[in-house]
Amino acid sequence: MPRRRPGRPRRDDQRPTRDLVLAAATTLFAERGFDAVGLRDVAAATGVDVATVAHHTGTKAQLYDACFARVFAAEREVLEAAGERARAALATGPADALRALHDLVDVFVDFLEDRPETTALWLRRWLEPHRHADLDQRYAAPLYTLVEELLAAAAAGGALVEPAPHVTVRSLVWAVHGHVVALAAQQGSGARERREFRAFVHRFLDGLYPPATP
Amino acid sequence: MPRRRPGRPRRDDQRPTRDLVLAAATTLFAERGFDAVGLRDVAAATGVDVATVAHHTGTKAQLYDACFARVFAAEREVLEAAGERARAALATGPADALRALHDLVDVFVDFLEDRPETTALWLRRWLEPHRHADLDQRYAAPLYTLVEELLAAAAAGGALVEPAPHVTVRSLVWAVHGHVVALAAQQGSGARERREFRAFVHRFLDGLYPPATP
DNA sequence: GGGATTATCCAGCGGTCGTTGGATTAAGGA
DNA sequence: TCCTTAATCCAACGACCGCTGGATAATCCC
């Protein structure tokens, strides 16, 4: 239990103020985008003053970046843990690699369904041209590499027809984002949509390989 | 040749001012989004005053809607023309239906590659929750219906495995948008990317059906 | 030619934005 | 207890925002 640092306390300070600000800002940025969110909106959603937001997170652009870093770090953490398990299956054989690929994609879909703000921030960032390189290299590239390795390993049991794995991976990723956006757009639990999408994804993965001709 | 209407002329009035404003605004909105674009930016890009923009397009929200209507009307026009040809192939047989499906998707990919602002506006609109219904029903639904019909017709020559056609179509559409975004993000002509993506899409369409077991 | 109509620009209004200086309050360290 | 440090809020600054009233100029209709 860390001691409180000096300073005038808030009325309810169970969590550090910076975390509260980042959480509120992330939600708002995901919903409305950078320019439509005012620092006074963030402050009101957190329950503090505008100056307090600035004191903890600096400028608005820095706050935006901090929100991205937090969300994408969480995504990366989950995916890398799943990636470790998948890598372990790489050496054991093509069938295991294909199953590991299915598992990895399931983790990815589950994560984005649970945290749709990840999809929203991801899409918004793609629409900012000057940030493409950073986003792609720091967050997307490692995942893409892993999936491509899994694809290649799984292909050992039946030659992979697709000549450009990154196109396949990217298309799959965008399909998942589209699924999450569609889920957020409709009312209801979307349980059927989730089930159908998973069936589609698994069929998609299996369809990447030509039928085994015994 | 329509006569000029009365009023103080611009210095160079080859095209109607409203068209120039809409074209400039569409580019800016696609690049930066609604809130990051000021009416003074639109005016400067057009070469007129702010008041002139307001005079021709009303409020900023109306200008935004007009840009959407123009872009999506162009998309719809192209797709419906291609859809007419595809529908003609529906009755002739499963092989023709499958080929028509390929052609229709090619038209879709070509169009979005040529006009990436369509993808940008489309994605931005998806990120505005209160506009989902309108976007989906007015523009997406007719296309989806047509593609699903083509899928069903093509399936007559080999049972369609996929049980939820709209999931397949939506995933394909999002994959195309992802392809366009990736194209815009990289330098160079992207000729190889385009070729690879087309190969992927056609393999994807063929993979929707189980292998014919002779 | 002369009013009517239309397009354009200028200037400015009220409001909101991101940001900051400084006062206030509470905690830790001596 | 007193000084330092840190967290918070208040007030306000300058800049920019969407929007508009009104002046001006060019065309049409008669």
TrEMBL record, chains A, B:
GO molecular function, one term: transcription cis-regulatory region binding
SUPFAM superfamilies listed in its UniProt record: Homeodomain-like, Tetracyclin repressor-like, C-terminal domain
InterPro entries for the chain: Homeodomain-like_sf, HTH-type_TetR-like_transc_reg, HTH_TetR, Tet_transcr_reg_TetR-rel_C_sf
Superkingdom: Bacteria
Residues covered by the HTH tetR-type domain: 15-75
Keywords from the UniProt entry: DNA-binding
DNA-binding region location: 38-57
Stored PANTHER family: HTH-TYPE TRANSCRIPTIONAL REGULATOR RUTR (PTHR30055), TRANSCRIPTIONAL REGULATORY PROTEIN (PTHR30055:SF219)
Descriptive protein name: Transcriptional regulator, TetR family
Organism: Micromonospora chaiyaphumensis
